[in-house]
Amino acid sequence: MFRQTTRFAVAAIAITLAGSLGACGSDGSEPGTAALRVAAAPDPKGDITKKVIELAKSEGIDLELVTTTNSVNDHQLLEDGDVDIDFNSHVPWFNDQVATNHFKQTFVETVFLTPTGLYSDKHKSLADLPDHAKIAISKDVPNQARSLGFLQSAGLVTLSPGGDLSTVTLENVAANPKDLQWVQVDLEATPRTLPDVDAAVILGTVATASGLKLEDALAKEPANNPLWAIGVVARTEDIEKPQYKRVFELYNSDEVRQFILDTYPDGQVIPAFGAPVGGA
Questions:
Q1: Which residue spans within 83-180 are E strands per DSSP?
Q2: Which residue, 52, 71, 75, 226, could crosslink 97 as a Cys pair with Cβ 3.0–4.6 Å?
Q3: DSSP code of residue 190
Q4: What DSSP character marks residue 160?
Q5: Strands 36-40, 63-67: parallel, antiparallel or unpaired by DSSP?
Q6: What is the DSSP letter of 15?
Q7: pLDDT digits (tens, 9 = 90+) for 232-252
């Protein structure tokens, strides 16, 4: 959901688990051909995908994990056929990518939600934030929108009424009582700003990958907003193919739900199956 350059910038680690009953083809039908390749960033997306790979292997489905970084546009990889499934986006980021690039892709299923937090190395509570505090915030529109909706829920800003909470930006801030000063950075750079700002709005997946714990945040995003759930995306032409459909089902399986609950018992990652989705 925050990939910004081209497929040629990919820095990927491929993990292949061959099914004992024979691999499925990338068209989801012929055994003995290439594995389905799944693009996913590291923990928690990568760890959840490894669980799906394990489950798929037991059914004779061969999957390959392609671990991507923030220098890679996963949706471009998918469009170009370099991967077959993408597991990195929430719906607003997906919609933005499809509208901007005219990708022929479908957001199929949501899988998990990671609450955003306001983190600080300098202050112990929300009440300690001074006037004119420097706040780091993601600069891309979908994730800035999420951050602002969260800050509104925390009582730090008020957004203009009637705005689309998936596309609002700093221009839609109607009230800012503490006169917070915004430091706009790339999404995955937000944790690195902590020594230099009063606080940073850090999305859950980025916080988890950086070793931050939700329990240490000054404020936490409500965990009941499915708009920001991460899910699986595929090329529209592929979504009805049997092997693809089974992989999508495995991402929403009881085994994956239990894996998430067992691996993240503190609520940093929450199962979010069945949220409303859409796409081209």
A1: 85-90, 105-113, 117-119, 134-138, 158-159, 173-175
A2: 75
A3: G
A4: P
A5: parallel
A6: E
A7: 999 999 999 999 999 999 999
Contacts of 110 by beta carbon, 8 Å cutoff, 6+ apart: 91, 226, 229, 230, 231, 272, 273, 274, 275, 277
> Across-strand partners of 105?
235
Q: What is the pTM of this model?
A: 0.76
- The single-letter code of the amino acid at 227 is L
Cβ 146 vs Cβ 168: under 8 Å: no
The DSSP symbol for 240 reads: T
Spell out the alpha helix ranges (H) of 88-161: 91-101, 141-153
Element containing residue 17 per DSSP (H, E): strand 14-17
- Residues in the chain with pLDDT values less than 50: 1-33, 279-280
Six token digits for residue 117: 């937090």
Q: What is the mean pLDDT of the chain?
A: 86
CA distance 42 to 229: 16
Residue 163 near residue 208 (C-beta atoms within 8 A): no
> What is the pLDDT, as a whole number, of residue 226?
81
CA dist 77 and 86 (Å) reads 9
**Amino acid identity for residue 26 in this structure:** S
CB 23 within 8 A of CB 34: yes
What are the angstrom distances between the C-alpha of 258 and each of 40, 48, 77, 207?
Answer: 20, 11, 30, 22
Instruction: Kindly state the helix (H) or strand (E) to which residue 52 belongs, with its residue range.
Output: helix 45-57
How far apart are the C-alpha atoms of 237 and 14, rounded to whole Å?
Answer: 24
pLDDT score recorded for residue 20: 30
What's the token pair of residue 131? 């006037």
Q: How far apart are CA 38 and CA 218, in angstroms?
A: 35
